[in-house]
Design a protein that fits this description.
This protein has 310 residues and is an alpha/beta fold. The chain is built from eleven helices and nine strands. A nine-stranded mixed beta sheet has the order 1-3-2-4-5-6-8-9-7, sandwiched between helices.
């Protein structure tokens, strides 16, 4: 995610999220500038690319995995490739599956959902089995309308699936957890983040993909231990934060590949298979919730149903 766009936060109000007066708008603009200044005080290292083989010496059919998206996928700020979320994810998947993994990290720092298309082309050309996508934060800070942001993501998901690539999307994080972003700007940013996350969840599953709700990227842990889970700029995750993110993605990725169970099935109003709209609302407020397409229950009229898991 690009930090310079934080200063634009005051202009969110003009995008239809909230209706405010001139004085309140001035407060949001000032808060956006202060947040931008605080974030820019520290310059981070460019993310090293972890593309390569993991699990040397393991036998079995190799797993070919692509990672697409923005700085949260790239591991912006890490000095070692081993600390990036891609490397941690590849190691975790390979260890659990007892198979070698080839990771193709195509993520780009600052990418928006509209920037996924060249990444998708490279993933397809790379002959990967599955793709994990982390995107949406830059759409929030650049004030991209949720409907536009989601439409680009869904197009990417569809193109991958047509090529035979299974897709998992880690939905948009809640940027309201970023400490330099103060109230009331925090509430505005949080609302925008959750609108994009809900749209991603609903439409990706409708398109046949799978999602895991990152909400505020492990929510309570990041809020209560920011010095541990956020990096030096207090905006991007630390090595521990990226590792936590990768661990959240590991089990859903294994399930996507069909080499592990996804875990405990959640219930919603007493049902294990629920309408997609209800599941989307449930998922964005509960970090780590996974949604998988499911057959329509007998005697139910709604066409699109999903299973929720943790």
């Amino acid at each position: 995610m690009r930090k310079s766009a934080v200063a634009r936060g005051g202009a969110y109000a003009g995008g239809g999220i909230v209706a405010i007066g001139a004085s309140a708008l001035g407060v949001l603009v000032a808060e956006g500038l202060l947040a931008d200044r605080a974030v820019h005080q520290v310059q981070l290292e460019h993310a090293p690319n972890p593309t390569g083989w993991y699990g040397e010496g393991r036998t079995g059919e190799p797993i070919r995995l692509a990672l697409l998206g923005d700085s949260s996928a790239a591991g912006y700020g890490m000095e070692s490739a081993a600390e990036t979320p891609g490397a941690v994810l590849a190691e975790g998947v390979g260890e659990a599956a007892a198979r070698p993994v080839h990771l193709l990290d195509l993520s780009v720092v600052g990418a928006r959902s509209a920037d996924l298309h060249p990444q998708v082309e490279q993933a397809i050309a790379g002959g990967v089995d599955a793709a994990v996508i982390l995107v949406g934060a830059n759409d929030v800070i650049n004030r991209v309308r949720p409907s536009v942001s989601v439409s680009h993501l869904v197009e990417a998901v569809k193109r991958l699936q047509v090529a035979g690539v299974k897709v998992l999307v880690g939905t948009c994080p809640d940027l309201g957890t970023v400490k330099p972003v103060l109230p009331p700007l925090r509430q505005v940013v949080r609302g925008w983040s959750r609108r994009i996350a809900a749209g991603q969840t609903y439409h990706v599953v409708r398109a046949g993909g799978h999602t895991v709700s990152l909400a505020d990227i492990l929510g309570e842990e990041f809020r209560t231990r920011p010095a541990f889970f956020f990096g030096a700029d207090r905006f991007h995750p630390s090595a521990a934060g990226y590792a936590a993110l990768a661990h959240v993605l590991t089990q859903p990725t294994l399930a996507l590949l069909g080499v592990a169970d996804t875990g405990r099935t959640l219930t919603y109003r007493g049902r294990q298979v629920v309408p997609i709209a209800s599941a989307a609302l449930h998922a964005v407020s509960r970090p780590g919730t996974e949604l998988d397409p499911a057959p329509r229950p007998r005697l139910r009229l709604r066409r699109l149903w999903v299973r929720m898991r943790r």
